[in-house]
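Good morning C.,

I know you're traveling, so I'll keep this short. The sequence:
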Amino acid sequence: MRDLDVLTSWHSDWRGLRVAVFGLGVTGFSVADTLVELGADVLVVAAKADPRRADLLEVIGARLVIESDPAAVPVELVGLDPEVVIVSPGYRPDHSLVAWAEGRGIPVWGDIELAWRLRDKSGPPAEWISVTGTNGKTTTVQLTTHLLVAGGHRAVSVGNIGMPVLDAIRDPGGFEVLVVELSSFQLHWLRRSGVGSLAPYASVCLNVADDHLDWHGSREAYAAAKATVYANTRVACVYNKADAATLRMVEEAEVGEGCRAIGFGLGAPGQSDFGMVGDIVLDRAFIPDRHQAALELTTHGELQQVGLAAPHMLANVLAACALARSYGIPAEAIRAGLATFRLDSHRTEPVGRKDDVLWIDDSKATNSHAADAALQSFDSVVWIVGGLLKGTDVGPLVEKHAKRLRAAIVIGANRQPVVEAFARHAPAVPVFEVTASDTGDVMQEAVRLAASAANRGDVVLLAPAAASMDQFADYADRGNRFAGAVRDHLGGAADDDDTRDSHPTPHPA
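The tokens, ready to paste straight into the viewer:
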């Protein structure tokens, strides 16, 4: 077997290394493509394969095996006798192929470890700024990248956000900074010490709430995966003052000498914190006289102009400012960058208004924590909720927001747990079930029911608190279909309450 500890550079000798890659999604293909370029012997094993990627694998010189039996180990994999396995993020730790590899003592890496080892392809390695959290990761990553670019640096958002890190490190132009969104799956496969362990410039865990418990097995295992983001951080560990778990993670992390803990919160900042006094966003961490002074970065009014004024968005802004300031971005560049930032689709995005009813797409709210933040932003809500719950209970969320709910529209292939949560915790809230099973009809029915339940001044909020794959391709597909159904509804209805459909009978909760 090859000594993998010597493979710490793009310029190490990877030729002939026998590698099995599990999965052929975006990540799996980038791993296979990279390893073939390095001269490795690559076998991809996948439960399914996009035909285009399968064809490209053959073109680049990798082999593909489609699993015919999830419980069986393909003979081609046994014949390869891999020296290392690279596992795509979606593969659970208890997957039969992972168990087979670990049982034979074969090292199992994720794509992030591979990218860290190979990060010097285009010259001096880029600095990494690592971002995780149950919610807010993508917005914070995009904000941080935007602020770094505003400060004159060549930066890019990578990782769980969409572009694989391996694609960025192979960019011939190179980057100064990679802002890396890390999912709990990716963090699970990372080691905290030794060869191949990350040593990011700065890192943050934005928050921790129950999510992906079916994958990790317990909330403790999920939180432990998230905590890995802080391991070996060299300059700044940014944490959420409103989430004590993130501070504990920093306190327990093994970090580089001189690394600082930087808190962020919506209240007045202490020394080494980012926060707010009145309308003003302040830095008391990266200024010479942080004991006595603070530096203004922007105002709540300015953030309101670009859709960043809701409490959960303000938290993301503070975290991104802390990360960017840790890299030396001046205050004037921070202010200018925030003023030109635009949110992605499906994140508390208004998609229509009529009859004084506002329709909001927050399909990105794929767990209770994200839905909680969205619900807190409005006073009277018709809530579209449901989907793949990933082992979590929406009961506490229903109970917390019962008083602000005009009605609930329940979607999802398995709606019963959500309906039962309303029966237990909010029996007075009218509940309507979407019975359509065809993907194209689900949102049409949901919008029709929501329109019938809404009154003037209400917000119809798609914040499902669940993943989407039971009925949709992904959260973007869910959000797009919602927005399309809203457009259909608003385009075909007169601007007059008298034309609204009669109210249907709610589900007995």
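Safe travels,
E.
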